[in-house]
Amino acid sequence: MSLPIIAILRGITPSEAPAIGRAIVAAGITTIEVPLNSPDPLDSIAALVAELGETAIIGAGTVLRVEEVDAVADAGGRIIVSPNCNPAIIARTKARGLHSWPGVFTPTEALAALDAGADGLKLFPGSMAGPAGLAALRAILPPGTKVYAVGGAGPENFGDWIAASADGFGIGSALFKPGMDAGETGARARRIVAAYKEAAA
Description:
Blueprint: E1 5-8, H1 17-27, E2 31-35, H2 41-52, E3 57-61, H3 66-74, E4 79-81, H4 87-95, E5 99-101, E6 103-104, H5 107-116, E7 121-123, H6 126-138, E8 147-150, H7 158-163, E9 168-171, H8 182-200
Parallel strand pairs: 1-2, 1-9, 2-3, 3-4, 4-5, 6-7, 7-8, 8-9
Helix pairs in contact: 1-2, 1-8
């Protein structure tokens, strides 16, 4: 079973993407997003899809415009993650057959995202809401709603978030920073996976 962790590779370049992607997937993380404010992000997505498209879900983060959904889909991406709730982006994502994970912070945003067809919710910034904020939000969400904590959630506090009902996590700088090689990224990925498994046990 795939672990409920999204690797956020902000700042990655197309030339390094395949090796870093392989290291992350080898560690057990099989969903990868390239934020669109990275260098040549569509080229990185295409490179990751060519290398790992059969074994991982590759897509984009920081998707802010509807036309970007089409560009990601055309590059082979299968998941769209945004920092905000934009119903038009969600609708276009679903029309293209992609997974939709918009960012939400309030009950209004969360329910609007679900009404628009989101597959799951990205609670962002997680550091502002905290596990207590997620627990309070959960009370008004439909049963079965998937919520991933992003920003302020990581190996040091997976347990607190899981206890507050987090279904998964998006992990950025704790996993990858620009200039980091595949060896270090893979080692970090293995530590994150081990911490998640321990917290979720």
